[in-house]
Amino acid sequence: MTTLIESEEHQALRKAVSALGKRYGREYLTRVIAEGRYPTELWQEAAKLGYLGVNLPEEYGGGGGGIAELSIVLEELGASGAPLLMLVVSPAICGTVISRFGTEDQKRTWLPGLADGTKLMAFGITEPDAGSNSHRITTTARRDGDDWLLTGRKVFISGVDHADAVLIVGRTEDARTGRLKPCLFIVPRDAEGFSRNPIDMELSAAEKQWELVLDDVRLPADALVGDEDAGLLQLFAGLNPERVMTAAFAIGMGRYAVAKALEYARERTVWKTPIGAHQAIAHPLAQAHIDLELARLMMQKAALLYDAGDDIGAGEAANMAKYAAGEACVRAVDQAVHTLGGNGLTREFGLASLIIGARVARIAPVSREMILNYISHQTLGLPKSY
């Protein structure tokens, strides 16, 4: 039986991760970004404490939990002001796909390293002309003897410069129908013909964004993850956790912003009264808190459904959770900045940089409009317009 009331174990995990996050905090992450480096210290300590691989199987060095536990880790780090974006990618997407569909050799090669932080894997699906639409992906893989040759381009791929490999979504030709079908390949970072170019972003983050170019990258047969004929199932086995984790990222960011605004609203005094006593300040912050709590409930539902093996139910709930959390995060950050007024735009208070960051939760990894398409078609049964 599953429940949305957190167990004592989950409450203890939340408390412990929160303590870790507060030891680093927003100032640490801001300094790391300014220095143009990766938050290695936080990543390594989180790994040492077992948080990076909390969702991975115990027999491969993980914690034996699920996306429910990993989402708690990311949310609490975000609420402290020091989220780790690659938690969405390395253990949640790549670790999940490999643990569910990988060969025994792939599991033993990658999962222990992903769990203890000594290995990092990026994920490549988005393309210049296809976005995240797996049906329009043009990166293709063709057989050459026992090998595969992979050719194509990817954009907005996070953390490639620190990753040991990238889990690339390509397409292969179905021998029976001639149609192209999605497949997933593990591509080592140093593979011949595999190059990357940085994308200049307005967004300030420790994780850089990259364009990837694959020019007849030769891969051995065992670079293919899972069954060649079940690529779509395997792909969504990674995308549902991605949506849950994006919701956790957004909720954590929103909580951090509201906490900063509350601190200011209690201390900032105008006409001998703290501004938080005025309903024009108090009510919008209360609404932001409510929105974040509601989004968290849907995120918890999605995680529980996924961990219980209900991929279809999890797909609907994960999309809803990502939508709700993205909207709640944007409103929370906006209200926090507005509460501080001019101070909300200063480096001293560190909220202005979240304005762009909050928009990411609306846009990536799938836009809110595409989620509305999904719900209208899949849940409500309305016809497609495309």
Written account of the structure:
This protein has 386 residues and is α+β, with helices and mostly antiparallel strands. The protein contains ten helices and ten strands. The chain has helices at 8-34, 40-48, 67-79, 86-101, 104-116, 231-267, 279-307, 311-340, 353-363, 368-379, and strands at 121-124, 140-144, 147-158, 165-173, 180-188, 194-198, 209-219, 224-225, 269-270, 273-274.
Relevant terms:
4-stranded mixed β-sheet; single chain; 4-stranded antiparallel β-sheet; 10 helices; 386 residues; alpha+beta; 10 strands
Short characterization:
The protein has 386 residues and is an alpha+beta fold. 51% of the residues lie in helices and 16% in strands. It contains ten helices and ten strands.
